[in-house]
Write a structure and sequence with these properties.
- This protein is an alpha/beta fold and 449 residues long.
- Helices cover 36% and strands 14% of the residues.
- It has 15 helices and 13 strands.
- The protein binds zinc ion.
Length: 449
Amino acid sequence: MSPSSPSPSSDPIEGSRGGPIEGSRERTRSCATGLVCHRCDRHYPLTDTVFACPDCGKGLDIVYDYELAARHFREIPSSERPQNIWHFEELLPIVDASAQARVGRYSGYTPLIHADRLGAELGLSNLYLKDDSTSRPSLSYKDRVVAMSVARLLELGREEIGCVSTGNVGTAVASLAAKAGVDAYVFYPNRLEDTKARACAALGAKVCQVEGNYDEVNRRCREVAVATGMEFANITLRPFYAEGAKTAAFEIVEQLDWQSPDHIVTAAAGGTLSSRLHKGLGELQLLGLAETDPTRIHIAQPSGCNPIATAIIAEEAEVHPVTPETAAHSLAIGAPGDGYLVIDAVRKRGGTGGFASDPEIFAGIDLLASTEGLLTEPAGGTTVAVLEKLAREGKFAPDDTIVAIITGNGLKTLDDHPPKPWPDKIDCELDAMLAALEGIGRRPSPVVA
Ligand SMILES: [Zn+2]
């Protein structure tokens, strides 16, 4: 196969609409070769719209020509690649350059922050935060995965996209669909973060609030997809959606100058992020870009919804579904679709699972805020709380390189955080303001001689 035609297939891209954007290539450098069942290894062409294996019902994965990808990587230096989710396009599943050019050009490449002050609290000198709370356009890691879904939608020539969301998928779909010029429909289980549902509507998406928890609404949305023919970002487009999560692993390793961290700590809900971090790390090693095998992945869940962490600790291969009861709404998935993949990833990498109660989660939010100046949502608070527990349990050496992924932004969930003490309004007078400072606990300043 010639290096100038990275796609394994010379077939036209089925259903593609519109010509390539000026200056772009017709095809991306994607080295994706097809779809494969996670369990029974049955293969499907990349153009197929199947999203679950007809034989065994399990999800499908994307497979790549890694030899070709390794050659392509050497051809274009990192400095000449776009600073967005398409930086590693060889290992992403979108082959239509015009679809790719319309989505996610400002997504990804979030900062990797040396958390010196939080690290000092926890006795860790090389602690880093992958700050996806500042991801564009919708302030959560979901921009990475939804961008893949929307690009795939455009590749298929479709003009409407649905999703079921615990919160952040909805806002990412609303944002990225608007920019791509397609209609968005968001199904929101009741009792989740209201602000996020309102944000979807403010971004122009049509929002349906549904009685029932995430898992119930998710099951019903599969039926809606079949009945309407509508593509769903995280259901019918799931094999493509999931690949977007690998970009976080690629970026972390590159930002550490191609040194894979000793540990990654991340929250888990459906299990997409943690399982695809594992896949992404493995691909970097396959391509000879970094030694990633030693990196351990630890997952964090709320005590009120911890089916994956429980299975990991009990050394079971499958997840037993639970009914979520947690303030970390974006992690409230009781029947995680990719749970078995997470268990496999954590086991192979020698990591662990941990969980945190709601008060511990909000204490984690406060700790991150007061040390690093980052306001995260309860999912990020869960990660910080479990990171703290693992550090206290001695799971890390003091100079290990540890990356905690902060997946979402606290400005989106502030209405759900416990209220802080809030003094009465005072007069705009010096004496009143000095008294107020004392009242709210200002530390005495050193006496100037
Ligand atoms: Zn199968």
